[in-house]
Design goal:
Distance between the termini: 45 Å
Number of strands: 8
Shape: globular
Order of helices and strands: HEEHEEHHHHHHHHEEHHHHHHHHEEHH
Radius of gyration: 25 Å
Helix content: 55-70%
Number of helices: 20
Structural class: alpha+beta
Largest sheet: 4 strands, antiparallel
Strand order of the largest sheet: 1-2-4-3
Strand content: 5-15%
């Protein structure tokens, strides 16, 4: 473990209230996520000053320290080691504080978490674990497509197609397993019910006068089926005698939820899935430039509010239906605007060495589509650069959307990556060179507009003071630039 990871963890631990204040430790791609028994014991100002910390996010009962990709993992391991070494194992040492912590966390969640945000977080818990497989299979599918189009390695491409497509053929089962796990059911029962959606034998079943098709309803049908199975299972657990529970509960769960899936959920979810695909195609083909402008411009605020999680099932449905999602390349333009804005801040605030260091460390991640370090470490604390970054995202989205209106749709075969990392996952109705050119043009547009609007309108005297420089911008002659209202 690198020494600096231990040093960062050691610096963070006392500033969040010490080991006794830690209820749980986890991490995502960029953030150390802590559940604190008493969040008021955390010293936010001191935490922000720790070298390597790019920002803080308090979301419901979660206290999140933004560290950036490649850094957060080792720091989390070091942090957990320190907690365990100090208190002899978090579960036992926190025992006396657990009840109080649970009450405080519940009260905080009731105050800050709306039903919509809670539902979206649970949806994300179902689909986010699938992203690594979507990425790996998506890249292999793109590579296989290139080989097929070029006529190369013809003996290998069938094997690559099988490797790339196997997961997508059974993605409904994985959705069912994760759904049951998230909503309190037995994962394998959720997977068993969701497997009905993709079972070839459903072609012999007729519902509402229509013969079902394997895969009808897709991931949405699997989600609904497993959710129903979880509730049926919990209902049975409280009513079936203990001696018969091992036999009756799984049988009734699969029977009731399975029949409901065949004679209702698959048909309804199929109609919704078809509507999503049709709506996405029509939206871009008729109002592509405007739709791209709106989607690219609003995505960063959606991320801030946590509402972007609602798009995960939509992306997954489009990938399952069409082989790619046409929305992700447009939404990725928000990250391009963010990069352009950060570069403008770097140029304008040349006296603020601390902020420039933060930008230098966060910029590589931003170019690869991980925008949180730049959002929470740069643009959001400064205020106006966050808005000008949205303008850059809107411009990039409009660029990609304009070509969609012309019939050149750019999609992605997986969700998760963005920025430059999305290039290997590009797919659509044109050759790869055309897809590359359109997507790269969108990124360059987002960079340029984000930089220009931030340079001209985003970095005011007030922003400079907020950033800690305390100095107005200088013109090339060395005289203070005319002041703008903040």
């Amino acid at each position: 473990m690198p020494t600096d990871s231990h040093a960062t963890a050691a610096a963070l631990l006392p500033l969040v209230g010490g080991p006794a204040n830690i209820l749980s430790v986890a991490h995502c791609m960029t953030r150390l996520r802590l559940a604190l028994a008493d969040p008021s014991r955390a010293d936010e100002e001191a935490l922000r000053a720790v070298p390597g910390v790019l920002g803080l996010v308090v979301d419901g009962g979660s206290y999140q320290v933004v560290l950036g990709p490649g850094i957060v993992g080792p720091v989390t391991v070091a942090f957990e080691e320190l907690v365990d070494a100090t208190v002899g194992g978090r579960p036992t040492a926190a025992e006396g504080l657990a009840a109080l912590g649970a009450d405080l966390k519940g009260e905080r969640q009731r105050r800050n978490a709306t039903p919509v945000k809670t539902a979206l977080r649970r949806l994300a818990a179902v689909f986010v674990p699938l992203i690594p497989a979507l990425i790996g299979c998506g890249i292999l599918a793109g590579l296989n497509g290139l080989l097929v189009n070029a006529g190369l390695l013809t003996s290998l491409t069938p094997a690559l197609a099988a490797v790339a497509s196997g997961f997508m053929a059974l993605i409904a089962v994985f959705v069912g397993v994760n759904t049951a796990k998230e909503f309190g059911g037995t994962p394998v029962l959720g997977g068993a019910v969701a497997a009905i959606v993709v079972y070839p034998g459903v072609a012999k079943v007729t519902a509402f006068g229509v013969t079902l098709a394997p895969g009808q309803g897709g991931v949405l049908g699997a989600l609904a089926a497993a959710l129903l199975a979880a509730y049926v299972e919990k209902w049975c657990r409280g009513r079936v005698p203990a001696a018969l529970d091992v036999l009756l509960t799984p049988t009734l769960t699969v029977l009731v939820a399975g029949l409901a899936t065949l004679y209702g959920l698959m048909w309804a979810a199929g109609a919704v899935s078809t509507a999503i695909g049709t709506a996405a195609d029509r939206l871009l083909s008729t109002t592509g430039a405007f739709a791209g402008l709106v989607l690219g411009g609003l995505f960063l605020p959606l991320v801030m509010l946590g509402l972007h999680q609602a798009l995960i099932p939509i992306h997954t449905t489009l990938i399952e239906q069409q082989g790619h999602t046409v929305l992700l390349p447009i939404l990725a333009m928000a990250g391009a605007g963010q990069v352009g804005a950060a570069l403008a801040v770097y140029v304008r605030l040349r006296h603020d060495t601390s902020l420039r260091t933060t930008i230098r460390s966060a910029l590589p991640a931003g170019l690869l589509g991980v925008g949180e370090p730049l959002i929470y470490g740069v643009s959001l604390p400064l205020g106006r650069p966050f808005l000008t970054a949205c303008v850059g995202g809107a411009a990039g989205g409009a660029f990609v959307g304009f070509f969609a209106m012309l019939g050149d749709q750019v999609g992605a075969t997986a969700i998760g990556p963005s920025g430059w990392a999305l290039f290997p996952l590009l797919a659509g109705n044109r050759g790869w060179s055309a897809l590359l050119a359109i997507y790269a043009g969108g990124l360059l547009t987002g960079y340029a507009v984000g930089f220009a609007t931030t340079y001209v309108f985003g970095v005011t005297d007030r922003v400079m003071v907020a950033a800690g420089s305390g100095r107005p911008a200088q013109d090339p002659s060395g005289s203070p630039a005319p002041s703008r209202s903040g």
